[in-house]
Amino acid sequence: MEQHTVLIISEKKTDHLILSASLERARPERFHLASSESMERPLEALLDPMIDAVIMAHGPETEYLLRLASKNEAAAPLILLLDEADQATITQLKELGAQDYLIRGQLQDALVHRILDYSIQLKQAREKIRQLSNRDTLTGALNRVGFRAHLERAMGRSERYGFKTALLYINIDQFANINDHYGEADGDVMIKSISRRLINKLRNTDSIARLGGDEFAVVLEDVSSPADVELIAEKMLKSISAPMILSDQQVAVEASIGAAMYPEDGEEFSELVELARSAMQQAKSMEGGQFIRYSDRLTFDISGNSSLAAELRTAVRKNQFELHYQPRIDLATGQLVGLEALLRWNNPERGLVAPGEFISACEDMGLMKTIGYQVIQHACSAQVWLKEQKLPNVDVAVNISFSQIQDDRFVAIVKDIITRSGANPARLEFELTESTILKGPGGIKARMDELRELGISFSLDDFGTGFSQLSHLTELPISALKIDACFVRDLPHNKHQEAICTMIIEMGRRLGMLVVAEGAETHEQIEFLRDHHCQQVQGFYYSPAIPLQNLPRFVQEQREKRRNQLLS
User: Fold this and answer.
1) Which of 29, 167, 368, 383 is the most buried (most CB within 10 A)?
2) What DSSP element (H or E) covers 327?
3) Which CATH superfamily is domain 4-130 in?
4) Structural fold of domain 144-293
5) Fold of the 313-567 domain
């Protein structure tokens, strides 16, 4: 068994003694302990490539060391040793780069071992993912090789399922001047910052690539119309133009964005890229900070959010939001066992608008709580309808935002919706992300416990992609883990993704939790997940999100497929 070196940084000898004894009792062959007492400069130890994890006592130097570790890109996960679980302190330290935490007086052997083991595994997995050959080393975005493969797959899905895909070609205006004035190091800082800003504006189904020094490409799948693309481009331009700090100076840049759509603008990879690039060059020849779609100039007022705000308020008032449902399949039986409810805006002029184009605006306007309750109402009505269609054993999963679950009225309103609709709460599932939980785990736990008593279950969405705390899996009433699509995408040909999926599946099994894989698109992925005992799966291999009324036909088609497989 591979042995890992764990560094303990603490002025208290009792910390060293307790942790050493704990690890010795738990797994003596797994860990080798080092001590900062034998080192004059702890930062050197943090940056030592031989150190696999660091347990650091919280003290006056903690924030300074965390900042230095982050600045110097220390690879080892940092686990803080605290006197008490003060959430404000934990959140602050997490933002500075801490991976997890332990509490003095609560250092049970198994807990210490699990947190260390999981932190090290997470570190290894993330390091391997970053090293994938199709990733840009600076930003972590797709590189040209990965971009081509991804866009070609997206075009294939568009053809297969009949939706549109948009390609955005983005160039940072006057970036050469930044490099000349501030130097290449600050230029790299700007590129990484812009990459993060773009990623924050994307949906889970979208992707980003870095094509060159100052050029990015974004692939948007399942867009309803050019207006969708315009809305996304507007958000990107606003995000890029926000000031940032370089060498203690405030700097702002703009970008030029060109777009082409598949299949109407081009049907081949090289053609689509060239059309989007030509549109970008046309936008760049103007004043800057512009977006143009191939052959059509689409100008808009960057500050003109008022029209969108008015439309969204009307949408809430007229209940224009609706749900599409992505089937969740039991891999052992092939039967439909669940649905994930995905929000759509049925705009009278634009048609169906995907959430990536309006969710952030709704959050900024404070509309998400109201919309969230409408979603729960629709989901409960769907659950009742499913029972009428003789599908009573199908769970309906709903994504819950932080603004919803922090609402003091949340539990009471959910109870009222269930009572009025006649839904079975045992067939309702609320999906939470790790970022939502981290914003307020104390208050969230109390609400989760109360809803769990009603019969509602909880799943942890996008598991492993954020700041994962193992303690959440044992402290909160979570019954399911969802493997993010990014860990399924290249199965079974990517050994790193294989390792991550296997680890999550095994962790779920040991904790007695259901494991659901998202984003499965190929037969090979399905076979891998089935062979490794993943219980459920969802993805385009079975179906995209579909209207509720299409579900009986989907169920019938699945039954016919299973019957044909048995007869063949």
Assistant:
1) 167
2) strand 321-330
3) Response regulator (3.40.50.2300)
4) Alpha-Beta Plaits (3.30.70)
5) TIM Barrel (3.20.20)
Query: Are 39 and 8 a contacting pair, CB within 8 Å?
Result: no
Q: How many Cα atoms are found within 13 Å in the side-chain-facing hemisphere of 96? A: 19
**pLDDT at residue number 272:** 93
Integer Cα distance of 102 and 248 in angstroms: 36
Q: What is the dihedral sign for C-alpha 117, 123, 126, 128?
A: negative
- Which of 536, 474, 465 shows the shortest CA–CA distance to 510? 474
* Phi and psi at residue 121, to the nearest 5°: -60, -40
pTM over 0.70: no
Closest CA to 492 of 484, 501, 503: 501
Is residue 58 exposed (0-12), middle (13-18) or buried (19+ Cβ within 10 Å)? buried
Query: Residue 441's pLDDT is what?
Result: 60
User: Under DSSP, is residue 359 helix (H, G, I), strand (E, B) or coil?
Assistant: helix
**pLDDT exceeds 90 at position 514:** yes
**Beta strand pairing call for 336-347 and 395-399:** parallel
| Alpha-carbon span 274 to 270, nearest angstrom | 6
Closest CA to 27 of 106, 122, 110: 110
Domain with CATH 3.30.70.270 in the chain: 144-293
What is the per-residue pLDDT across 539-567, written as a single tens digit (0 to 9) for each? 999 999 999 999 999 999 988 888 887 77
Instruction: Give the burial string for 4-37 (b: 16+ CB within 10 Å, else e).
Output: bbbbbbbeeeebbebbeebbeebbeebbeebebe
Give percent of the chain with pLDDT exceeding 90. Answer: 41
Span 89-106, pLDDT tens digits: 888 888 888 888 999 988
135: Cα within 13 Å, side-chain hemisphere: 14
348 phi and psi, to 5 degrees?
-60, -30
CB contact at 8 A, 6 and 116:
yes
Outline which parts of the chain fall under CATH 3.40.50.2300.
4-130
Average pLDDT of the residues in 169-186: 89
Q: What 3-state class would DSSP assign to 537?
A: strand
Residue with tokens 């080192």: 39
Six token digits for residue 543: 């179906």
Q: How confident is the model at residue 297 (pLDDT cuts 50, 70, 90)?
A: very low
Cis status, amide bond into 425, omega within 30 of 0: no
Query: What Cα–Cα distance (Å) separates residue 382 from each residue in 404, 412, 417, 540?
Result: 20, 20, 13, 21
Task: Give, to the nearest 10 degrees, the angle between helix 62-71 and helix 87-95.
Answer: 30
Mutual angle of helices 184-200 and 226-241, in 10-degree steps = 140
CA distances from 7 to 93, 97, 205, 276 (A): 18, 17, 39, 51
445's CB contacts (< 8 A; 6+ apart) are 475, 476
Mean pLDDT value across the chain: 85
Contacts of 368 (CB under 8 A, 6+ apart): 359, 362, 401, 403, 404
Which residue ranges does the chain devote to CATH 3.20.20.450? Answer: 313-567
Q: Find how far residue 218's CA is from the centre of its chain.
A: 17
Rounded Cα distance between 297 and 276, Å, is 12
Quick one: average pLDDT of 320-339? 95
